[in-house]
Design brief:
The structure holds two protein chains of two kinds. Chain A is about 70% helix and about 5% strand. Chain A contains 28 helices and two strands. A two-stranded antiparallel sheet of chain A has the order 1-2. Chain B is mainly α. Chain B has helices spanning about 5-25, 25-50, 55-85. The model of chain B has no long low-confidence stretch (mean pLDDT about 90). Classes of the chains: A mainly alpha, B mainly alpha. The interface of A and B includes residues 649, 652 and 655 of A.
């Protein structure tokens, strides 16, 4: 069975090949290339399952009962001097989990898009980009070195850019694509700095394992670790849309809905979480996550906590169903980052795992609603409402996804969120435990609002909503089934997920600090479910029975409430701060200086060059070209003509004259030769 | 017998031939003059051969006679064609190559 682990490189290779085939020959296929993408991702999914089984069956003979990691170098990527960098794979439990999750969600999205994108003007191109994206993500999760990680990371960024701007004819869409790309690039600066720094931390190696070991060895300077940690955290903030770089993700909803489900909910945006989890040796050391006697606060957890709360509030004021889900994604990513900050490594990646299924389910559900229910609109207040009757499958699956996201027992979100809550309380991070519970309350609230506005009340749109066809409902059903069962992998008493993904680096970091995994705690679970249910109940009554009259239309009547609403409407003015504050203040003086420089220096240089070259040109024309060159050419012609007219007179045509000249010359030559010979001897 | 006498005879014949080639207007006479030049050479070859007691000179002379026969054949054919085209064999009038 180890064959599957040793040859896991085939999984990223399949969508790479599919990308090339679709790009080059896609339009010649009967279904314009989509069948190639679905087949490749389907095959990759099957291989991922087999790889997962191979991993679970692998003996735990390694150190401390952890399954040994499988590493393999495939070929020399490049060589600089004596130092060579290999392209390879490293497969451990975390990687296997991500391989399964990515190929699963990607397959669902590929199938969903068959119907959703049907007849699109760039259908083939869409599938090519989806394949390339899947390949990049798979390269990133199997990367043994930081450089290979960077390759996958940036590949995903490019695909995200291309797919957000899929309908680029609309200026808003191409603006959103640019914003997403540039904002994540701002974070990528941190990644580049981090890669450069960790190269030296590991003593001249890009190997992730060596970097973590060097960080944990205790021989590296703490300040160096902290700066490298902050650089990587900054990269994660950009990619995983954490505060303060979260602003790109809601705008990224301009892309097609399957793209939002795949890239901006389940896979790419967890790249930042993946980065922190992969470098957990570095992070836990740099931010003193496990160090006994820590302050109970650190930058990673604080960033995550701020993100949870601000994004959850923003989700309450959105009219666009996809934007609600986008802010929800930001908030859930905040959970993962916060969990990593409080030392709950397993809880973080478990939440990453379960979140992928129910969030992809919710996004595809929103896509289904817009496809068949609301005439391609995503506005909950204007074009939706009461859709539970015409779209029963979409409704049920969306409801399951929402319940899972809200953390209702026994769905997936309950288990993972509960682990984060317990994990935060377990190791002296009580503040963040409270924030996790508040976040859960807010999540339940905005999801209830979203479900009510979409599926309950009166239908506010026009036309006749109907259920979506099978290509759309089947992925929804499968994903919602996963949203139900995925959490049981790590239910209390089972903890299979923990065992399967157990990581030597994290284990080493934890055992060094004598920290143990958190245990399931019944009171915490009961309390969190109770507050979530209470939150759902309150929001439900508010909408369904129009209760709590005090709050209705409050923003119209009360100045403070109105002010708060305006702040939320404007997304805390962060976008304005970035565009008008930071970008403009940098851009404006530079632009003016550049304009002055352009007008005065560049233009005068250009004009000077033009004037002087004109003068030189006229001199050249008059003297060199006209006199010298033309003179030489004419002279050659003239002299040839003159010479010829002299010489032609010797051409009399009379043979005897020629013979006479010949004879004369012969006599002279012979005579001279004879004289020379007689004198010589 | 002296070699000189043969050489003088050959020189006389050669000069006569050269004069004929350069001065005569008649094409046939020019060809005959060329024959004179060739025979002057033949006399020289045979004389030197006899003088040196070899037959190489005679063999060479036989070759020259054979070549001269071929040459005259072609030369007379040319003259005949010139006559047919221009009703004259005056070489001064054959100046188509005049530049």
């Amino acid at each position: 069975m180890d064959w599957f682990l040793r040859n896991a490189w085939i999984i990223p290779a399949l969508p790479t090949v599919s990308f090339l085939v679709i790009l080059l020959f896609g339009k010649r296929f009967p279904n314009r290339g989509s069948e190639v993408g679905v087949t490749a991702v389907g095959a990759a999914f099957l291989l991922s399952i087999l790889t997962g089984i191979a991993w679970i069956m692998r003996s735990t003979a390694g150190a401390e009962g952890i399954r040994p990691t499988v590493s393999r170098d495939l070929f020399v990527w490049f060589q600089l001097g004596a130092r060579q960098t290999n392209f390879g794979i490293r497969v451990d439990g975390f990687t296997v989990m991500l391989l399964f999750m990515v190929t699963f969600v990607s397959l669902m999205v590929h199938v969903f898009s068959l119907e959703y994108m049907r007849g699109d003007r760039r259908y083939t191109y869409f599938y090519a980009a989806l394949s390339l994206f899947t390949a990049s993500m798979l390269v990133m999760v199997t990367a043994p070195t930081t450089l290979q990680l960077l390759l996958g990371w940036e590949g995903m960024g490019v695909c995200s850019f291309m797919l957000i701007g899929h309908w680029w004819e609309d200026k808003d869409n191409s603006d959103a694509a640019l914003k997403a790309f540039l904002t994540t690039r701002t974070g990528d600066i941190g990644l580049l700095i981090g890669i450069a720094m960790t190269y030296f931390i590991a003593g001249g190696s890009f190997d992730i394992q060596k970097i973590n070991e060097a960080a944990l060895s205790g021989r590296t300077d703490q300040t160096l670790l902290l700066v490298a940690g902050i650089a990587f955290l900054w990269a994660a903030i950009g990619k995983s849309a954490q505060f303060p770089l979260h602003t790109w993700l809601p705008d990224a909803m301009a892309g097609p809905t399957p793209v939002s489900a795949l890239i901006h909910a389940a896979t790419m945006v967890v790249g930042g979480v993946y980065l922190i989890s992969r470098f957990y040796g570095l992070f836990s050391k740099a931010f003193h996550i496990f160090t006994p006697g820590h302050s109970g606060f650190n930058l990673v957890a604080v960033v995550g906590a701020i993100t949870i709360i601000i994004a959850a509030f923003l989700a309450f004021v959105q009219h666009d169903i996809k934007k609600v889900l986008a802010y929800s994604t930001i908030s859930q990513l905040g959970y993962m980052v916060m969990a990593l900050g409080v030392g709950a490594w397993t809880a973080a990646i478990f939440h990453l795992f379960t979140h992928a299924f129910f969030k992809a389910d919710l996004f595809l559900g929103a896509g289904s609603v817009s496809h068949s229910g609301s005439h391609h609109s995503f506005d909950m207040k204007k074009d939706m409402g009461g859709l539970r009757k015409p779209m029963p499958i979409t409704f049920i699956t969306f409801l399951i996804g929402s319940a899972a996201l809200s953390g209702i027992f026994p769905l997936a979100g309950f288990w993972s969120k509960d682990e984060i809550v317990v994990g935060a309380g377990h190791d002296g991070y009580a503040t963040f435990m409270v924030i996790a519970v508040i976040g859960a309350v807010l999540t339940a609230g905005y999801m209830t609002r979203c479900v009510w506005l979409t599926f309950f009340g009166e239908f506010r749109g026009h036309g006749h909503p109907h259920e979506s066809p099978r290509e759309i409902t089947v992925p929804l059903v499968i994903l919602s089934a996963m949203a139900v069962i995925a959490g049981w992998l790590n239910a209390f008493g089972l903890h299979d997920f923990t065992k399967w993904t157990e990581n030597p680096i994290t284990a080493a970091a934890m055992s060094a600090a004598k920290v143990t995994e958190a245990k399931f705690s019944l009171p915490a679970a009961v309390i969190s479910v109770a507050v979530v249910l209470a939150s759902i109940g309150v929001v439900w009554i508010y909408y369904e029975y129009h209760a709590f009259g005090f709050f209705h239309e409050r923003t119209r009547r009360s100045r403070p409430a109105r002010a708060g609403y305006v702040v939320l409407e404007n997304k805390y003015y962060l976008d304005d701060l970035y565009t008008d504050g930071i970008v403009y203040s940098i851009k404006s003086p530079i632009a003016r200086a550049a304009y002055w420089f352009d007008q005065h220096i560049i233009d005068s240089v250009v004009n000077g060059i033009a004037v002087s070259s004109r003068w030189i040109a006229s001199v050249v024309y008059r003297y060199i070209d006209q006199d010298l060159i033309d003179g030489a050419v004419n002279g050659a012609g003239f002299s040839a003509e003159e010479g010829a007219s002299v010489l032609r007179q010797t051409q009399t045509g009379r043979v005897q004259q020629y013979a006479a000249i010949f004879f004369g010359v012969g006599v002279v030559v012979f005579g001279v030769g004879l004289l020379a010979l007689t004198h010589a001897f | 017998m002296l070699l000189n006498e043969f050489l003088f005879l050959a020189a006389f014949l050669f000069c006569t031939g050269v004069y004929g080639v350069l001065a005569r207007k008649n094409g046939v006479l020019v060809l005959m003059s060329i024959e004179l030049i060739l025979n002057a050479v033949n006399i020289n070859l045979i004389a030197f051969g006899a003088f040196n007691n070899t037959i190489t000179g005679q063999v060479f002379a036989l070759f020259v006679i054979a070549v001269a026969a071929a040459e005259v054949g072609i030369g007379l054919a040319i003259v005949l064609l010139i006559y047919r085209n221009r009703q004259s064999i005056d070489l001064d009038k054959v100046d188509l190559m005049k530049g």
